[in-house]
Amino acid sequence: MAQKASGISTKFYDFKVQTRSVTKLCHSKDIVTINGMFPGPVIYAEEGDGIIVKVTNESPFNITIHWHGVRQTLSCWFDGPSYITQCPIQSGQTFTYKFTFVKQKGTFFWHAHVSWLRATVYGALIVYPKTGVPYPFKYPFQEHIIILGEYWLKDVVQLDRATIASGGSPPPADAFTINGHPGPNYNCSNNDVYKIDAIQGKTYLWRLIHAGLNAENFFAIANHKLTIVEVDAEYTKPFITDRVMLGPGQTMNVLVTADQPIGRYSMAMGPYMSAKGVKFQNISSIAYFEYSGAVLNSLSLTPKLPSFNDNLAVKTVMDGLKSLNLVNLPKETDTILFVTVGLNVQKCHSKTPKQNCQGLNNGVMAASMNNISFVKPKISVLEAYYKKINGSFTEDFPEVPLEFYDFVNGAPNNIPNNTESLNGTRTIVLEYGTRVQLILQDTGTVSTENHPIHLHGYSFYVVGYGSGNYDPQTANFNLVDPPYMNTIGVPVGGWAAVRFVADNPGVWFMHCHLDIHQSWGLGTAIIVKNGKGDLQTLPHPPTDLPRC
């Protein structure tokens, strides 16, 4: 439903959180869905539209929905991460999300933000330019949404609990999926395959969304080039490539022209695993791009994906990403945050170590920012902050690491004796309007790894990145046309530098979008204070805000 109100068109959606049985990979199981759909329903809007989504929880699990990439200008209460901006919607309860697309358009997605429920609770959120505003490229013949995911045979909530209780690492997904379909490389999945019908000579816009849980992935199509035109819902200069890499939380729009001989061509989604010694799913998910006139059930041509640890292939794509237009970037910054991201192993303190200390060297796996593992409080940080409730969080997250060393090559690694992190709900507090430079530095404790770091409530300019330890003397910055993103893959054994202006009051979660790392504590919350007047002040909480 849509209606015009005060010049803004408002779209209404009804989300019912429901469990339903699905059969995949020769097994049936109950999954949590929205309105019984997997992937979930698509939300369509136009730039400037208001959105109202009534979420009714008919499942037995706690739930929240996060609107990934939506900047939530003055609507932090509706951002959705559990225990950061709200308590979960409990079974039998409802909560209505209300927000507006302020100066935003492009490919977004929504997903659950409680436990690992987003394994199946996700869907696309497509925001078109205002009526009459063209794309900055030739209008495509058709658009298609392509959501990359991961599928487990086990119940994901139990899997999350069991993994944390074990102290060890999670099992890899049983399959990668494209729009919920594993494709013919997996058991019982010859017909469980996604297909796009193509007409020779036409150009298509594919909206790629990575909704996977714990894996980063390469994506390519046989014999066709991909032209990147948008990343994280911001236009880029067109960049032509054979393949792309997306981490969880990233979106990318690519143009594909059906310029090959008539036939059936495979798209493939395979693993990118930059960490050492981690088990991963190495079977690719396949979907078809089938030209009209192709022989029925003809053999498909398969693309060659990079090897699973091809860091150069990832860098090559990142190097090609530039904002479409010159950017208005703050040349000066008011504060510089230096944040290490990485893994830890805690010492075993369990009476039953065989059950609970299955991490490296019989320790307990953890992850941290500046060596502090984030602990989610019992009520939401935003509520505690807004209502001045003491005891839920502290405002003392260190703005630089507690100690400096060779983060990449000389990191402590006498597991678990010197690889422990501190636990706490420690937050960063910023005055309204602060111009921030944030350096994210990967560390070599346990293993270096590419970490997709997502910041809620903001996009940021990725002004630089590189391998090794960040050195301000030698770091190369692009202050002319850096890409504007909400999720940045911090390079394996490297660093990334981003800039943003803290002009959206509220409490904003910053975390690794690999869910296991988030569960282990790789995150923090940034509190942005109110400015002056109504347009710089977070409104009152909604009356139906869920209680913990």
Please explain how this structure is put together.
The structure is a single chain. By secondary structure, the chain is mainly beta. It has three domains: 8-134, Cupredoxins -  blue copper proteins (Immunoglobulin-like), CATH 2.60.40.420; 137-323, Sandwich (Immunoglobulin-like), CATH 2.60.40; 335-536, Immunoglobulin-like. Helix content is 7%, strand content 40%. The chain contains five helices and 34 strands. The protein has a six-stranded mixed sheet with strand order 11-10-13-18-15-16, with no helix packed on it. Strands 12, 14, 17, 19, 20 and 21 form a six-stranded mixed sheet that branches. A six-stranded mixed sheet has the order 23-22-27-32-29-30. A hairpin with a 2-residue loop joins strand 15 (226-231) and strand 16. The longest helix has 11 residues, at 156-166. 51% of the residues are buried. The model is unreliable at 1-6 (pLDDT under 50). One of its GO terms (cellular component) is apoplast.
Form type: globular
Class based on secondary structure composition and strand pairing: mainly beta
Structural domain count: 3
Number of H- or I-type helical stretches: 5
The CATH class of the largest domain is Mainly Beta
Percent helix = under 10%
Main sheet: which strands, in order across?
A: 11-10-13-18-15-16
Strand content: 35-45%
CATH level 3 topology of the largest domain: Immunoglobulin-like
Q: Residue ranges: pLDDT <50 for 5 or more in a row?
A: 1-6
Radius of gyration: 22 Å
Mean pLDDT: 97
How many angstroms does the end-to-end distance come to?
31 Å
